[in-house]
Design brief:
mainly alpha
């Protein structure tokens, strides 16, 4: 199992990369990387399963963005997904500090 310190360091890296995403595909790639590397047992035991569920919801929201024909709507939804991802990562970091 990953240490709390190591997980916090990784979270801060993922948060930084998510913040730099310019396209839904980039954010989706970052979340796919998170899900492939993150220790879900650690998150459930030490952080909060709800935050992991929320991050999954963001991932699926990203997938549906391209269905909207209006580019302004897609951009708006993409920004919401980035904001929500950053909030979730920040909440996970705060759980590491407790």
């Amino acid at each position: 199992m990953m240490s709390t310190h190591d997980f916090k360091e990784k979270l801060m890296q993922w948060r930084s990369k998510a913040q730099q995403a310019k396209h839904p595909f980039e954010l989706k790639q970052q979340l796919m990387h998170f899900f492939s590397v993150a220790d879900d047992k650690f998150i459930i035991a030490k952080i909060d399963k709800k935050l992991l569920d929320d991050l999954c919801a963001v991932y699926y929201s990203i997938q549906s963005i391209e269905a909207f024909p209006d580019s302004h709507v897609r951009e708006y939804l993409f920004r919401i997904c980035i904001d929500r991802t950053l909030i979730i990562f920040e909440e996970m970091v705060q759980h590491c500090d407790n």
